[in-house]
Task: structure prediction
Amino acid sequence: MRTVVRGAVRWAVVAVALCLVAAGPGDSVAAAGSADPDPYAFTDGTRQVAGATTAAHAERLDPGRTYRSSLPSNGKLYFRLHLDATSTVYVSATAVPGAGTTVAATDGLQLSVKDPHGNPCSFHAASFGASRSPRPIAAWGVRDASPGHVLCQGAGTYSVHVERVDATGSSADTWPLELAVASEPPLTETGATSAPQSWNSASPAPVTGQAVDRAGGAGFAAASAVGQGVWRDRIRPGQTLFYRVPVDWGQQLNATAELDGSSGGSGYTEGAVTLSLYNPVRGEVEEAYAGYAGRQTSAALAPLPPVDYTNRYGFADQVKGMRFAGSYYLVVHLAAQTADVFGQGPYGLTLRVRVSGAAQPGPAYAGRPDPRKLFDVTVQTPDAARPGGPAGAAGAAGPAGGGSTALRVLAAGGIGAGTVLLIALGVWTVLARRRAGAL
Result:
C-alpha cells in the first residue's frame, strides 16, 4: 500500500509541475521581471567601516580582510594602510548603486593610493560606460613593491582615497561600498622587470559544445565557478551575474557573453550587454559592450596575454591586470533600459569560456599572500568549474542538474526546491488521508 501512495505522490508532483509549465512562463517571468534585480551579495562577515573626511582620521584597512562602507554623492572618503617595505598591497572598492538609480556613461568612482608623504602611488577610475545602467563597478589601487618600482617604497602609513566621479550626472543617493584588501609577498630572487614582448593576440574561435546550466552569483564572493566550456543562464534587465574562472600561470583566458533574441518588441538598446573581467584582487582588466536589437548579440573580451608575473610591467591595463594566477571574475550585466524596449525577460544568456595553454610554474615567492590562497588555483575547485562537475550538478536546473523529473520541471517553471517540498508534503498528506479513510 505504501508503494501506491508513494507512486501517487510522485505523479501528483509531476502533474503540478506540468500544470505550471503548461500555463507558460508568463506569471513566473512577469513576477521575476517586475521585481528589482537580486541585490549585491556582500562577503559574509565583513566589518563596517566609516570613511573619514580627512586622512588624519581614517580607519585602518588590513590585508586579507573585506569591509563594508558607504560612498556619498559628494566628498572623498579616506582609509589608511599600515604597510611593510616589501609587500605589494592591493585595494579594491566596489560601488553598488541601487536599482532605479540614474547614472550617466561617465559616472562612477575612482580610487587612489598615496604614500606617507602624500605622493601618488596609483590611480584608477571605473565608470558605467555605454550601458548607462546602475550596476556594481569596481576600482582598484596598488602600492607596488615589485623589483624595478621606485615610487612609494618603504614601510609606513599609506592612505586610500575613494570618491565619486562626475556625480552631478547621477542620482544623489549614497552607494553601498565593499572594500577588499590583499597583499602579495616579494620574490625570493629578482627576475625580469619588463613585460613579455610577444604573445598570441589572435582572437580564438568561440568555444562550442553542449551547454551546461550554471546560475551566476550576485557578487564577487558569491561568484559561480566555471571553466572552459559553454554555460547557460537567465538574466533580467538590471541584473548583474558573477562567475569565477580558475586561470593558472601561463594560461590565456578568453570569454564571450551571448544574449538570446527577444520574442517581442522592436528598437535598439545601446550598450545592453556588458561583459567585464576582474583579476583575483578584483582589479578591472577588460570590458566589452554589445547593443541589442531584439536579435542574438554578443560581447567578447579583447585578446589577453597569458598570466605572467611580469605583465605588471606592461603599459596597458589589459596586460598589467593579468599578473597572477587565481580566480578571474567574469561579470555580465544586462542594462535596465532593455526592459523598456523588449520587456522584462528573463533572457537566455550563454557564456563561452576558453582557457588556453598548459599551466606553468609560478614565481618563487618569499612568503604567502593574504588571503593565503588568493593566487592558488588548486583550491579553487577546478572540478566544479568543468561542464558536468559538482558545481554544475548542484547549481543547474536543467539536465546537468540531476534530480527527479518533477524537480527539474518545477525548476524550469521558476519554482524553488522549498516550494517543491511543500507541494509534495501537501499532496502526500491528502493522499495518505484518503487512503486511510478507504481502509
